[in-house]
Amino acid sequence: LNLRRFAAPAVGTALTLAYASYAVSTITDDSAETPTNPTISLLMSACSVLESRPSPSLLATSPSAISESSLEDTVETITNWSGTHSVTLQKVHAPENRKELEDLVSSTEGPIRPMGSALSPNGLSFAPPGTSCVSLSLMDRVLEVNAEKRTVRVEAGCRVEQVIEALRPHGLTLPNLASIAAQQVGGFVNAGAHGTGALIPPVDDFVLSMTIVTPALGAVTVSRGDVGLQKVVFDMCRVGLGAFGVAAEYTLSCVPAHELVETTTVLTRAEAVESLPSLLKDHRHMRYMWIPYEDAVVVVTNDPLVGENFEAKEAGVQDPLRPLKDLLLANEPSLDTSLVDSMGMGELRDKLLDINPLSTPWIRKVNAAEHEFWKLAQGTRCLPSDKLLQFDCGGQQWVQEVCFPTGSLASPNSNDLSFMLKLLSSLEERDLPAPSPIEQRWTASSTSSMSPANTTKNPADTVYSWIGIIMYLTSDDPKKRDAVTDRFQNEYRDVLEAVGDEYKAVTHWAKQELPPEGSPDRQTRLKKIKERLAEVYPVEDFKAMRRLLDPENRCGNELIQE
C-alpha cells in the first residue's frame, strides 16, 4: 500500500522504482535523522538505486534502429537571431516522433543537445562541435485541444504561433506571450520566457504536464499535482535549460480567446514613479519603456475589451514616424525619400543608430526623435490578444535582462523604481551611448525551481520586475560590431550588474553571458555569477537532478557546465 501511495506509473518504471525505494527507506526507518535538504536526500537516494541497476539507459525495451529520415550528416554554421553567437553543427538529428527521439537519445553516444529556433540572445541551446544536435523542427504537431478543460497538448518543436492558430477555432488562446511567437514551445518553456502582467506568471507556469527524454531514464512524464520525486522533477525540469534531456511533449493551460484594448501614453519620469502602483493593479498587462537622456517613459497597457463597442483614439493626424524620418534625411541626404518613407520604426532606428552608434551626443538626438515618435503615436487600439502581446524587438542586438523581487501588489517595496532610477542616473553620469528603450516588465512568481521568478526564497504573492538594456548591432562591418560589443560587454553591462547587486538581481537564462575568454577578470566574474545563482536558485538540487537524469553530463554545454 505504501509503494502504491508513492508510485506513479505514468512516470515510467525507473523513476517509480527510484522514488519507491526512497519511500520505503523513509517509512520503515523511524530512527533516521531528518535530512537537512530533503530534496537532495530524495534525489541522492534515487541515484543510488539507479546506480545498482545493470542497464545505464533503464529503458523497458532495447532501442530500435533510427530511421534514415531522422538523421542527417551535415556541416552547417548556425547564427542566433541576435547575431551574437554562432555554432558549427556536424551531427544534426531530426526525429519525426517521440519513438524516434527516444531511440536517438538511448543509442547515440557522447554529448547530445536539443536545439530550437536559435532565438536566445546568448545561444542557450548551442554546444561545441561534435555534439549531436537534436532539432525538433519535425516534431511540431498540435496533438490535442481539449476545449472543455482549456488545455492543449503539443510536441516540443511546435512553434508558439502554430499553437495559437490551432487554438483559435476552439475559442482559446495562451495566457501570455513573450513579445515574439516564433519560439518552439520547448525553448519557450525551458528558457523561462515571460510576458508582462503583475498577476501573470512566466510561461513555464502554464505547463500542466511534460514529457522529457532523458539519457538515464528514457522518457519521463511528470505533471502538476504530482507528489514526491515526481513533483521535484516537474518543478525543476520545466525551466531545465536543456540540461536534463530533450523535451518531447507539453500540455499547456489555455484561456478563452479575447480581444485586448491597448493604450499607449507618454509620461514624465516623475509621473511614471507616482503612477506605477495603480497601473500595476489596474491593468492585466503593463510595461514601461524608459528613454535614456529624455524625461519620458512610454507606458503600454493591455486590458480585455468590455462590451462590443470600441472606438480607437489617436493623438493626431501627423505621421508618428516623421521625426525619425526627418532626422535620417537631414543626416543622410543622399537617401531616396520614398525609400525612407517606406521604412518602419525598427528599420528607421537601425539606420539612425548606424550613423554613429557609440557617439553619446548622436544617441541623444536619436532618443529625442524617438520620444517625439511616441508622443505622436499615443492612442488606443483593439485587436486579438495574440496580436498585441507580440511586438517589434528591433534588429540584431546585444541585450541583457535582469529579474528581481519587488514586494507584492498589496505591499510593494518600490525596488523596481529605485533600481530603474539608479540605473538611469549611473549610465547618464557616465555619458554612455545608451539607445532607447530600457524596457521594464512585471510578472507574478513561478513555481518552477529554476525560474528567475521562483518562490524558493520569496512568498508566493511576490511580484517580479524585469529590466532589459540593449545595444543594437546595425552594421555588418566586423570592426564596428566589435566596438559595440566591447562597449556593451565591458561597460554598459557592468553598470546594470552593479545596480543589480543591491537587489540580488539574476539574469534571464536566455541572456546570461559567460565572461569573455581571455578576459583578465574572467574567473572573478564567474565566481560572482555563481555566488549570485546560489543565492537565488536551489543550485544543489539542480546538480542532484542532473545526476539522476543525466549523470554523464551529455546534455550540458559550456554555460551550464561553468
Topology, please?
Layout: H1 2-6, H2 13-28, H3 38-51, E1 71-79, E2 86-93, H4 98-107, E3 112-115, E4 132-135, E5 142-146, E6 151-155, H5 160-167, E7 172-173, H6 185-190, E8 207-214, E9 218-223, H7 228-237, E10 246-253, E11 255-256, E12 259-267, H8 269-282, E13 285-290, E14 297-304, E15 313-314, H9 322-331, H10 337-341, H11 345-355, H12 360-376, E16 379-384, H13 385-388, E17 397-405, H14 415-429, E18 438-443, E19 464-472, H15 478-501, E20 506-507, H16 522-536, H17 539-549, H18 558-561
Parallel strand pairs: 2-4, 3-4
Antiparallel strand pairs: 1-2, 5-6, 6-10, 7-11, 8-9, 8-10, 12-14, 12-16, 13-14, 13-18, 15-16, 17-19, 17-20, 18-19
Helix pairs in contact: 2-3, 3-17, 9-11, 9-12, 11-12, 14-15
What does this protein structure show overall?
By secondary structure, this protein is an alpha+beta fold. It is 35% helix and 21% strand. It has 18 helices and 20 strands. It has a 9-stranded antiparallel sheet. Strands 5-6-10-8-9 form a 5-stranded antiparallel sheet. Strand 8 (207-214) and strand 9 (218-223) form a beta hairpin. Helix 9 runs antiparallel to helix 12 (360-376). The radius of gyration is 25 Å and the shape is globular. It starts with a helix and ends with a helix. 44% of the residues are buried.
